[in-house]
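Example: Adenylate kinase.
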Amino acid sequence: FIMNKFGIPQISTGDMFRAAIKAGTELGKQAKALMDEGKLVPDELTVALVKDRIAQADCANGFLLDGFPRTIPQADALKDSGVKIDFVLEFDVPDEVIVERMSGRRVHQASGRSYHIVYNPPKVEGKDDVTGEDLIIRADDKPETVLDRLAVYHKQTSPLIDYYQAEAKAGNTQYFRLDGTQKVE
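Written out as structure tokens, the predicted fold is:
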């Protein structure tokens, strides 16, 4: 919705790491091991990846960062590199809803097509609509991994709420908290 409305790209560190994993790069191998355990990729790797991405031509008029920054050091590194953050959107979603949403995802590995057993089910349970091939549950979508990731989020990422609220009070950005359980309008 936001990307279409403003004509800007969505930059997802998760997607960038998954592409590196699929390509079998060294960064991809390191990221895969960490992500499969529900851990976050170290800041220096993530920051380098994002800085490289936002320097590309399609980001000249803006971009939407999805899943970045996740830590105060990442936010500081972004700020120190001169990147201006105009808006910060916090989508507030209870943990149990996140577990339900993520553990219900199913993916066609070859194409990346994504389904959800409740919200976007395939026509035939467990099968890709286009090819009929099996769908998988990504290791990082398993309930126990999601719970581990949420624990990491609450420890490392939640402090960003205070960080960006302070940035907004200082006039450096605008901060909005949105109910992430509502439908997109």
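The domain at 92-179 is CATH 3.40.50.300 (Rossmann fold).
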